[in-house]
Amino acid sequence: MADDRICFPCSVGITHTCPICQAVIPGSGHAPCYPCSQRRRSERQIGEEAATIPIQWMSGMFIAFCESGRIPLDNGLAAERIARTADACRAIAVRDPTYGRLTTDAVHAALGADGARRVAPLIAFMSDVGVLDWDRTRLQVLIENERVDAILTAHRDSPHASLLRRYRDSLAARNRKPITQRTSLTAALALLAELGDAPLGDLSQRHLARALRKSPGHRAALQGFLSFVATQGGPALTSPKPRPLSPVAQEKRLRAEIKAWRKRLAKPRSAGEARAMLILLLARIYALPMTRVLTLRRDEIVVTRNSVTLWPAAEAIVLEEPFASTFLRWARWTSGWSSRPGPWAFPGRHGHQPLSEAAIAYHLSGKAKDQAKKL
């Protein structure tokens, strides 16, 4: 006897109209399509999160940000991004900021460096609408001050802790930048590690030579510390000047480095290491500053059939094969649905800022691979 039921093959061709966007979608019933369903879920979450933000103007700004299109509400990742943004707004609201007088110091105190980086779109929005007076230079100063304090805290039980604190105070009194203070303290710690628990008077040229052999990059940063040690009753040491290489030797060393990096790039341990090696090769082969390569934008890359051109309106550097294929494999040169947000060819952790020199050193040191093994 016939009834209203139909078999699966016949049901495949059934469609219905989404009640929200009027799109024709497969299946029977009256349910909305997936993007509309996800958007409706996101809008409900926005209202619930906004109700938990104690300051009214901050709650309104949160809603305006979420509805501005900077978070794709019909995306599956919308819930995580909305929750992260709401957490940041609540953390800022705890400090009871006045509308229009929110400062970089207050945001950094509430979120920290990593927290501010994770909500970079929110910070950009607050700056655009005039709620936040955002100063990237000031933020970098705050971050470096935190790093300096972390160094002193980590070595507070060291026999040379008081010497390090006095050295930091001396650097600050001479108006040295926080990044210079951190570099100088790091170099001083490398030298004091060779001395161990022995008193400062036992410091000798032998300790200095050993420290420079392990970390030759600390040579310039150690000059100020050696002068400071002499004023604190320590020995008067002098840093030996490195023997300059001839132009021929420098060219030979550069060629050897490039050859070794190309070989390492052929079989990288991770995608992060591959991008780090690619950035180093671009900087060395074409004699570019590292910061110039790191801030390369996607719209500054022109891809043709046989070559890749970087900065066509400026340097117009042409990459030939096989290096061009290597670049296209590891750099973010297209803007698609699977690409990270942001305009950078070498994006950082969250995509809204370019990769940093510290991240390059991290990936090349092998720590990234060791960390991945622990997870």
Task: Briefly summarize what is shown.
The protein is mainly alpha-helical and 375 residues long. It is built from 17 helices and 7 strands.
What does this protein structure show overall?
With 375 residues, the chain is mostly helical. The protein folds into three domains: 34-134; 139-231; 264-335 and 343-374, Topoisomerase I, Chain A, domain 3 (Alpha-Beta Complex). It has helices spanning 8-11, 34-50, 56-66, 78-93, 104-118, 120-128, 136-154, 161-173, 178-195, 205-214, 219-231, 247-266, 271-285, 290-294, 323-330, 357-365, 367-374; strands spanning 15-17, 24-26, 102-103, 132-133, 301-303, 308-310, 317-319. It has a three-stranded antiparallel β-sheet with strand order 5-6-7. A two-stranded antiparallel sheet has the order 1-2. The protein has a two-stranded parallel sheet with strand order 3-4. The relative contact order is 0.05. The model is unreliable at 335-340 and 368-375 (pLDDT under 50).
Number of helices: 17
| Secondary structure: helix percent | 55-70%
Query: What ranges have pLDDT less than 50 throughout 5 or more consecutive residues?
Result: 335-340, 368-375
Give the integer mean of the pLDDT values: 82
At the fold tier of CATH, the topology name of the largest domain is Topoisomerase I, Chain A, domain 3
Shape: flat
CATH secondary-structure class of the largest domain: Alpha Beta
**Percent of residues in beta strands:** 5-15%
List keywords for this structure.
3-stranded antiparallel beta sheet; DNA binding; two-stranded antiparallel ribbon; 5% strand; Topoisomerase I, Chain A, domain 3; 3 domains; disordered C terminus; single chain; mainly alpha; 375 residues
